[in-house]
Amino acid sequence: MQWVLFAIFAFATCGGYSGELRLSVDCANKSESDLSIDIAFAYPFRLHQVNFEAPTCEGKRRETLALIGDFSSSAEFFVTIAVFAFLYSLAATVVYIFFQNKYRENNRGPLIDFIVTVVFSFLWLVSSSAWAKGLSDVKVATDPDEVLLLMSACKQQSNKCLPVRSPVMSSLNTSVVFGYLNFILWAGNIWFVFKETGWHSSGQRHPADTMEKQPGGYNQGGYNQDSYGPAGGYNQPGSYGQLLEKAQTLKRLLLQQLWCITTMLTPRTSSAKLKPRAYCSPSLGISYRAKKTNQNTRK
């Protein structure tokens, strides 16, 4: 919704502008003076078509002059981009709200939205920069001091030419600001629109597919306990959580076997009779009995 509002502000502050400046020419002969020369101009700033009359201070004769410059191209380009951005934003808002299923169908809607967003971001930057330069030239061309230099009466030192009122350019300055704000808004939205496309989804699936193609684990030798799989070793691919669980199981088994060895090798006393646990390996019991037999033989 903010795209719609920002676009409206951009073309409204520029396309709806009209300004006026006022000059005064005080001739040596007061009857020939004109103290209120009004010059009005507006969008699209074809200033060379803005005509006005000024006294020559040579009798009753007056001359017709025109402002200098044609800045319609940058102004119209800026307003055109703003209007099209407004229309697209309005249409996109309607689609997002009422046609969400069709928007995501075949991933075509997000792709079109992404491409259009990139294009409008670039156009906003170009049009705002062009209009900022055009506005600077408009300010120079409509500067009362510059306009006074066009009058022949003002070239004579006996006559007094003064600016009475300068045009107000605040709304035009605001239009440039809104132009760059629209660029920031559209450019910042590129990432969020890109996340809706299939390109972003495929990029996220790629690392997972690569992990699944890697071998599952320790295929050489392996541990033959049933908990490690039917083929011995980590032959089944799994996630990091499964690998961590298997590692913890292996650690527990090793600690159990260490307890069994400690129990069987510890000398028996009347106060401490350690018995091998049920999970002790039979092979450890055989080794213990063999060692006990060898000790008795030596005695």
UniProtKB/TrEMBL annotation:
The keyword Lyase does not apply. Residues 1-198 form the MARVEL domain. Residues 1-18 form the signal peptide. It holds the Pfam family MARVEL. It is a multi-pass membrane protein. GO terms for cellular component: synaptic vesicle membrane. Its main location: membrane. The keyword Cell wall biogenesis/degradation does not apply. It is found in: Membrane. The chain crosses the membrane at residues 77-99, 111-132, 177-194. It comes from the Eukaryota. Keywords: Glycoprotein, Membrane, Signal, Transmembrane, Transmembrane helix. InterPro entries: Marvel, Synaptophysin/porin. Belongs to the synaptophysin/synaptobrevin family. This is Synaptoporin. The gene is SYNPR.
